[in-house]
Amino acid sequence: MKNFINNLLSLTFILVTGVVFAQSEKPDPAILEAQDFVAEANDEFASNEFAAAESAYRKAVAKDPANTAAKYNMGNNYYRNKKYGEGMNRYIQAAEVAQTKAEKHKAFHNLGNAFYQQKDFKKAVEAYKNALRNDPTDEETRYNLALAKKEEEKNGGGGGDDENQDQNQDQNEDQKDQDGEGDDKESDDGKPKDQDDQGDEKKDQGDQNKDDKGKPEDKDGDQKDQGKDGDKEKQQQQPQPGQGQLSPQQVKSLLEAMKNEENKVQDKINAQKVKGAKVKTDKDW
Fold first, then answer.
1. Distance, CA of 42 to CA of 49 (rounded, Å)
2. Maximum Cα–Cα distance for the chain, whole Å?
3. Residue 88: which CATH number?
4. H helices present in the chain, as ranges
5. Residue 166 domain-assigned?
6. Within-domain flag for 264
7. Would you say the pTM of this structure is higher than 0.90?
8. What residue numbers bound the domain in which 217 lies?
9. Could you tell me if residue 259 is inside a domain?
């Protein structure tokens, strides 16, 4: 089971923010500088130069406090170094400034991972729920949620009517998101990647928001960073720190295996309780 947890608690990466400017609007030099710092930090991160990466991410945030990629990727930098508390702060900041559901989903997903690592399973559950509200189709997040709920129950929290109420509430909210009735304007058409997240061009941050979670490279292989040239795009497209994407069938099989293990343990406990008890010879009709 630990192997499953390690695989599924994987980090995702957000590419450098691309800002679209109207033809008559002059690009903000600070925003462009921030993008350059994020690209530099991503390179340092990929080379395991975490101190240098942190420094570059901080410079990016100083230049552009609304840069989601800088805050989110800095959270990943802390996470890789097991500085989960600092990572949480950056994930929360990233979720606050995120412009798309894809970015919010990733921030909350990894926030849940950080809480899970610190064994704060109740908060991990809430973070994963928030992630699913922004992408109800992500089976990896849903599986992590199941793991966190299981651990929470082991520690005396959750379960019973409250559990059923939470599930019903989540299902209703997931359906609301899928029907396009949520507050976010980005399209959520039931696909595991946000291909339609164009939105308002002044707020949209380009095709880099296509889901690249749990994969070593972008699915389409040509993430665009509008306002930058092709070489910069390749530089910004970093390998993912880990893998963990599972098919729905794999998730179902894993959950069934977990349930079977629980049943075996419970059977052993029940067998110990009745050990030595007198066996009835007559049937109770």
1. 10
2. 92
3. 1.25.40.10
4. 2-8, 29-46, 50-63, 68-80, 84-97, 101-117, 121-134, 139-154, 160-178, 230-236, 248-274
5. no
6. no
7. no
8. 2-154+171-244
9. no
Residue 89, burial from CB neighbour count under 10 angstroms (0-12, 13-18, 19+): middle
Token digits of residue 21: 């400017």
Spatial CA neighbour of 183 closest among 99, 67, 86: 99
- Number of independent structural domains in the chain: 1
Q: Cβ of 257: how many Cβ atoms within 10 Å?
A: 12
- Please report the DSSP string for 193-259 in residue order: S-TTTT--TTT---GGGS--TT-SS-SSS----TTS-HHHHHHH-PPPS------HHHHHHHHHHHH
User: At which residue do the structure tokens 């299981």 appear?
Assistant: 150
Tokens 């406090």 label which residue? 65
Find out whether 169 and 136 touch, Cβ atoms under 8 Å.
no
At 209 the pLDDT is 37
Alpha carbon distance 134, 141 (integer Å): 11
The string of pLDDT tens digits covering residues 145-186 is 999 999 999 887 644 444 445 555 555 555 544 444 333 333
* 67 within some domain: yes
